[in-house]
Amino acid sequence: MNPVTDEEQTHDRDLDITNETCPMTFVRTRLALDRMQPGQVLRLRLQGDEPRRNVPRTATEQGHTVLSATEAADGVQILRIRKKG
């Protein structure tokens, strides 16, 4: 059996913040989550040390659940976050 890749896992919305810098990385993430229904999953592409530390931590502090964090072949991190509720 082949492992499920991040692209094959279900999500409701995609957001690419690889070109953003802090604090805009979480501002854009929060706006996306605010527009989603409780329980929906956001797939987020990000890069850089600050966003890798801050986005998952802040999402968790706000009650959301980080479902997975994987590295893509291009060095981008892919987070899957379930909206609280």
Structure in words:
The chain has 85 residues and is α+β, with helices and mostly antiparallel strands. It contains two helices and four strands, in the order E-H-E-H-E-E. Helix 1 packs parallel to helix 2.
Per-chain topology:
Layout: E1 13-16, H1 24-34, E2 41-46, H2 49-61, E3 65-71, E4 77-82
Parallel strand pairs: 1-2
Antiparallel strand pairs: 2-4, 3-4
Helix pairs in contact: 1-2
Can you give keywords for this protein?
single chain; 85 residues; alpha+beta; 28% helix; 27% strand; globular
Query: How would you classify the helix and strand content by structural class?
Result: alpha+beta
Distance between the termini: 33 Å
Biggest sheet overview? 4 strands, mixed
Evaluate the radius of gyration.
12 Å
Residue runs with pLDDT of under 50 for 5 or more positions: none
How many helical elements? 2
State the shape: globular
Order of strands, main sheet, comes to: 1-2-4-3
Give me a quick take on this structure.
This protein is 28% helix and 27% strand.
